[in-house]
Amino acid sequence: MMNSISVNQFRDNLKTYVEQTVSDHQPIKVTRRAGDDFIVMSAEDWEREQETLLILQSSNLMKQIAESMATHQTNAGYKPTQEQLNEIASF
User: Fold this and answer.
1) What's the CATH number where 15 sits?
2) How far apart, in whole angstroms, are the C-alpha atoms of residue 28 and residue 18?
3) Residue 23 clears pLDDT 90, i.e. is over it
4) CB 3.0-4.6 Å disulfide test: which of 17, 18, 29, 83 passes with 4?
5) Which pTM does this prediction carry?
6) Cα separation of 50 and 43, whole Å?
7) Domain around 8
8) Is 31 exposed, middle or buried, given 0-12, 13-18 or 19+ CB atoms closer than 10 A?
C-alpha cells in the first residue's frame, strides 16, 4: 500500500521523503487540499514502470513472452550446448 502524506508534510520533510522514496523503492502519494494529488517516485522506478508499460502495449512482445512461457512449461525451449554454456559462464 502506498504511503499518503499532505503537501505540507512533504514540503516540511522533503529530504527525508525523497531519501525514503529512493531507498525503499516505494512511491509516496502527496495530497493537496485544493488541487490534484501527485506521486513521488525514484527515477529508477519510473523508468522501470515505463519499460513495463511499453512491453504491455506491444502485442508482438506479449506474443513472444506467451510463446516463451509455453515452451518453458513443456520443456521444449532452446537448450544451449555445453560449449555455449561454458562461453556464457566465462563472462
Assistant:
1) 3.40.1620.10
2) 9
3) yes
4) 29
5) 0.67
6) 10
7) 3-43
8) middle
Q: 67 with 60: CB under 8 angstroms? A: no
Task: Confirm if 45 and 66 have CB atoms less than 8 A apart.
Answer: no
Number of domains in the chain: 1
Neighbours of 30 (CB within 10 A): 19
> Which one-letter DSSP state was computed for residue 77?
S
Q: How far apart (Å, rounded) are the C-alpha atoms in residues 51 and 58?
A: 11
Q: Which three cell numbers stand for residue 15?
A: 529530504
26-80: pLDDT as tens digits: 999 999 998 899 999 999 999 999 999 999 999 999 999 999 999 989 988 888 8
